[in-house]
Amino acid sequence: MTEATARSGAADESTTEAAGTTGIPDRTADTGSASLPVPRPARAGRAETVRFAATHTLPAFVRGAFHLRPRVVAAQAALGQQGWSAATLRAMRARHGGAPVEVRGLSGPMLVLLDQADVRRFYELPVRTLAMDAPDKYKALSLLEPTGVICSHGDTREERRRVNDEVLAADRPVHPSCEEFRAVIAQEAPALIQGSELDFPLLRRTVARIVRRMVLGDAAAGDEELARWLLAIREESNWMRMRRRRAAAAEALYRKAAARVEEYAARAEPHTLTALARNHPAAQGPDAAALDAVGQAHHWLLALDAVGPIVARTLLLLAAHPAEQEALRAEVDGGGAELPRLRACVEETLRLFPVVPDLLRVTRAETEWSGVHYPAGTAVLVPALFHQRDPEHVPAAHQFVPARWLRPGAAQDIRMAPFSHGGGRCPGEHLGVLTASLLTAAVLRGHRVTGGRPAVDPCRPLPGLLASAGIRLTLAPR
Ligand code: HEM
């Protein structure tokens, strides 16, 4: 029994996804039909397993899942690590005819989905069957947000997801607190455009202030101590509880940080995310303590911090594509919040350089993939970055083409999944894109981005990784 199934008791449930199936079929057994061969699982051989580990799993682990290690990212970017990973996945797809391939993951066997039909099914299966809290993910995330929706299952998960959906206004492109958030961005953004250069450390600090104000309120804007605590927890989460003593220390630090977040939430301005969570009806009910509506803020702080790298990469790509930058002019000067063209640029940046390059789940019931049945507790991986940069399915896969996001239905196109799809789709998608777009617009309103480092050649395929920590942009007044 895996850790995740042990926690949920899923392996004890006799539920199966396929009606009438009561157990795992013997794949070698005679089905009684000589003409119908029983599909066999595609298993990676020893050499393939080593190659997958060396080019995909280990580099991702060393990079850090929840707190990217800047030097490792820079080294992997220089070495072209994403190219190795893509080559491995392409070879696996060719060798196994597109079937899902069973490989050895960090915690045991894992099914890697390489065919679009299987990827579609991954998104279509309900989260109760294909759960978010896969063991490897849970080990890391449970340090950062033990009561977060992504770490939860069953009815508790559904309640927490409802709170997230409503507080983050998951179904609305413009968040109800947009006016207040815009005011925060307008107050903080001038720090970015003082000189003719904008480097990433300044952008990261500015975004951190904006995020604390949006989530916890103005009183938290300068709370560097809380920032240090959260950073230490994130760094430890990368070790996935392998260092037991340090994990215990991170748990203690989480309790301190959670108490600080509660203090801010109690006096936060009504438009902030923690005030909205605190005033949510579910936070007043009998199960309020177990639900921990305010505790969801730990994920919100983590996720919104990604706005810094997203803005840095978007501006760098716009510097390399001056015509795209120019085409944003009217929209940016107009001062509205919809910003459809700029949002498309942000989404395209996320397709090329996703914040979540791998989507990992665990099955809570028997499932069937390409005719083969797998037991509950199977880890399933969609290498999302590989798929959304796959030239076999995505035109101009390695080019910056924001217009693809303006086509009707683009947000539901499963070839591209920076926010995932289906029941596990990101509830903060609109808020994240809105925040990144508003901040990018604030930089572009009085300036042009004329260049930047690292150099990006618009005529060549874009690199697989773009280390944000080293990004430096050149600004010119207009
Ligand atoms: C802007 C960049 C963002 C990207 C690219 C992004 C991407 C994603 C992805 C791919 C997932 C699914 C993860 C998985 O299957 O393991 C996810 C989940 C989630 N995201 Fe985001 N996200 C972003 C911003 C945000 C923001 C701003 C918030 C909240 C303030 C947020 C809150 C969440 C939550 C709560 C989940 C868990 C959903 C669940 O368990 O059902 N995200 N995000």
From TrEMBL:
The keyword Iron applies. Residues 1-43 are annotated as: Disordered. InterPro entries: Cyt_P450, Cyt_P450_E_grp-IV, Cyt_P450_sf, Cytochrome_P450_monoxygenase. Gene3D superfamilies: Cytochrome P450. This is Cytochrome P450. PANTHER family: CYTOCHROME P450 (PTHR24305), CYTOCHROME P450 12A4, MITOCHONDRIAL-RELATED (PTHR24305:SF166). The keyword Iron applies. Keywords: Iron, Metal-binding. Belongs to the cytochrome P450 family. SUPFAM superfamilies: Cytochrome P450. It comes from Streptomyces flavotricini.
